[in-house]
Amino acid sequence: MDEFTRKFQVVDKGHEIRDILTTVYNALLVKGYNPINQIVGYIISEDPTYITNYNNARTLICRLDRDELLQELVVNYLKK
To answer: For residue 44, what pLDDT is reported?
Structure first.
């Protein structure tokens, strides 16, 4: 076992993540889903069927790494 703490570093992709999440959110809203519930379901399960295909939303969200997505959400939550 290592005796030191590993540093977890992710390249800042905040703008790209925000754009993708906004597109996915709006696509879910247009199709009549609760966007927050659907996105949370996707994040927890990583099952893309939580996200609609409308407006290419499913393909877009699958391009994001879940760790990067979670990091960006936590950073933005704590900034407010």
So the answer is: 95
Helical spans, DSSP H, in the chain: 14-30, 35-45, 57-62, 66-79
CA triple 56-22-27, angle to 5 deg: 45
Residue-wise burial string across 35-52, b where 16 or more C-beta atoms lie within 10 A, e elsewhere: beebbebbbeeeeeebbb
pLDDT at 28 over 90: yes
Dihedral sign (CA 61, 13, 22, 78): positive
Query: Side chain identity at 17, as an amino acid letter?
Result: I
pTM value > 0.85:
no
Three-state DSSP class for 31? coil
Instruction: Copy the structure tokens of residue 48.
Output: 């893309």
